[in-house]
Write a structure and sequence with these properties.
The complex is a heterodimer of chains A (357) and B (171).
Chain A (H helix, E strand, L loop, with lengths): L2 H38 L18 H16 L10 H17 L29 H21 L3 H32 L4 H10 L3 H4 L1 H14 L11 H4 L9 H26 L22 H25 L7 H30 L1
Chain B lengths: L12 H5 L1 H20 L25 E4 L12 H5 L5 E7 L7 E9 L8 H5 L5 E2 L16 E2 L1 H4 L4 E2 L10
The chains are: A mainly alpha (357), B alpha+beta (171).
């Protein structure tokens, strides 16, 4: 495939994956979260924004999403008087871009099996650093929050930014270490290879149950949501690091957060729930070792999306069930419990692998 | 007051591990969510403008004036209600009815709903069952104070006919 074709396909995949699926899910999530929390708390949730006042199936859903979008577009874009204007302006983009870049290495469907040359139709790029790229990019998203917080020239924002920085750095350690066991078992850091290996052996959640729990806890902390929502703890810090943001910039911040939630769900689905693998279904291969694409591929992509939606739902459910931690509890949980547990998990995995070899 | 020492229960191991308790909490919220989403809803919200709650029978709502068999106002402008009113919100201008047994009728009958305290003294005081607060409606909102001063025409809108005897024999 020539360079031009590669770039073209890359763009097509970007539009399909990031704009077509990720942005769509993140937008729908802003509403679904409110609806879900309403159902959990015996409330009705938003149901007033109908399109032209007409009632038809989903009209309240579509109307609410459109109304939210219009609202943030037309609100005043406030800039703090003594803040740093330019940093204040670019901070939301710094938060959003890493969240979107994470999708570069996430496979939505089967690529060529490990060791076989072929085009990755459902993955933007099969980088050989694989999931480590995601961690590298994810740790950059802390800049958006801290720079936005500092540029706002507000005490609430600054405290929120400090908390964000401390929390994300603390939990990144666990996040990364919890997956090392997976790398050891499946022998790769490339998500495509990991998913193929999960078809041969067992899903990550079976081989590494402790790592799944550790990963989910750390991931919820990374997405800065309850019970780890101290960076934006509304009862203490107004809105935390984006207190001074309004209008579309505020929306970009929260959109970045929602994309982060979807991204975490995608990683968890890939690594622990077998990605696009359907249980007990073999992926058919052609004579040259590449995948025979067909209707089964559609089902595999669909099952991956279902797994993703399930993890998103789980995150939402956790967010609306648990109360917020105190800050010292947060740090204690991260450094005193989760990190040693992750290392313990690593040692046990190594021992078991050594014995079984 | 002596200090009360509350004995704190020691957490069990399952509670200290936190994760089982998280799962227990998730089960509760998930059960509630599924119930509200697919089963019988626990939601107590009433969708107000479309659905209205029926008030109890003795609810004191917006006043209304009753009419006689022939459709005229039952009020005889005796001023008992405006005298009894603790908020002084009823303003009546009496006129000559020209009848033998009932001498007066209200030319204007005005209630300032913003001043009214909905105590029900007016309907208690009325000897003719002419003013009632059983409309079951509360005053509607409006954009000006004038709109809240309602007049005879508006008070008669509900147009209930009273069959109570009025003014002694032969009415």
């Amino acid at each position: 495939m020539s360079m031009g074709e590669l770039i073209l396909w890359g763009l097509v995949k970007f539009v399909c994956i990031v704009l077509g699926w990720v942005m769509l899910v993140a937008t729908v999530l802003t509403l679904m979260e409110r609806k879900q929390s309403a159902a959990m708390q015996n409330r009705v949730g938003p149901n007033r924004a109908l399109i032209f006042g007409k009632k038809f199936p989903l009209s309240a859903f579509l109307g609410q999403i459109l109304a939210d979008a219009l609202k943030v577009l037309f609100k005043e874009d406030y800039e703090p008087v003594n803040g740093n204007k330019w940093l204040h302006r670019i901070a939301p983009a710094l938060g959003l871009i890493p969240a979107m870049l994470m999708w570069l290495v996430i496979p939505f469907g089967p690529g060529p099996p490990p060791g076989v040359e072929g085009h990755h139709w459902f993955q933007m790029a099969d980088l050989n650093v694989g999931i480590i790229f995601i961690f590298a990019i994810a740790s950059m998203s802390v800049y958006g929050a801290t720079i936005g917080a500092w540029a706002s020239n507000s005490a609430f924002s600054l405290l929120g930014g400090l908390r964000t920085a401390a929390q994300m750095i603390s939990y990144e350690v666990t996040l990364g270490l919890s997956l090392v066991g997976i790398f050891m078992i499946y022998g790769s850091v490339q998500l495509n290879d990991i998913i193929w290996a999960q078809g041969d052996m067992a899903w990550g959640i079976v081989t590494q149950p402790l790592a799944f729990v550790l990963f989910m806890v750390a991931a919820v902390a990374e997405t800065k949501r309850a019970p780890f929502d101290l960076p934006e703890a509304e009862s203490e810090l107004a809105a935390g690091y984006f207190t001074e943001y309004s209008s579309m910039r505020f929306a970009v911040f929260s959109l970045g957060e929602f994309i982060g939630i979807v991204a975490v769900a995608a990683i968890a689905a890939c690594v622990f729930l077998g990605g696009w693998q359907i249980p007990w279904v073999e992926t058919p291969l052609l004579a040259d070792g590449t995948v025979d694409y067909g209707w089964l591929t559609v089902a595999q992509v669909a099952i991956f999306l279902v797994k993703m939606v399930f993890i998103i739902w789980l995150q939402m459910q956790i967010r609306w069930t648990l109360p917020r931690f105190r800050y010292d509890q947060l740090m204690k949980l991260g450094w005193v419990y989760l990190l040693p547990l992750a290392i313990f998990n690593l040692v046990i995995t190594a021992l078991v692998m050594y014995v079984l070899r | 007051m002596a200090t009360v020492q509350v004995e704190r229960r020691e957490l069990t191991l399952a509670e200290k591990l936190y994760i089982p308790e998280v799962v227990r909490g998730l089960v509760v919220t998930t059960r509630q969510m599924l119930k509200n989403a697919f089963g019988k809803k626990d939601v107590a919200t009433i969708q107000y403008p479309e659905v209205k709650k029926v008030y109890p029978d003795r609810f004191r709502g917006r006043h209304r004036l009753t009419t006689r068999e022939d459709g005229t106002v039952r009020c005889v402008a005796c001023m008992l209600c405006s005298t009894a009113c603790p908020a002084k919100c009823i303003h009546i201008v009496a006129g000559d009815r020209g009848g033998a047994d009932v001498e007066k009728y209200p030319i204007s009958f005005e209630i300032d709903l913003l001043v009214c305290v909905y105590c029900g003294f007016c309907e208690e005081a009325c000897p003719c069952d002419a003013i009632r607060m059983d409309s079951g409606r509360h005053p509607l909102p409006s954009f000006s104070r004038d709109k809240q001063r309602i007049h005879k025409v508006q008070l008669l809108e509900d147009g209930v006919r009273s069959i109570a005897r009025q003014g002694g024999e032969g009415t």
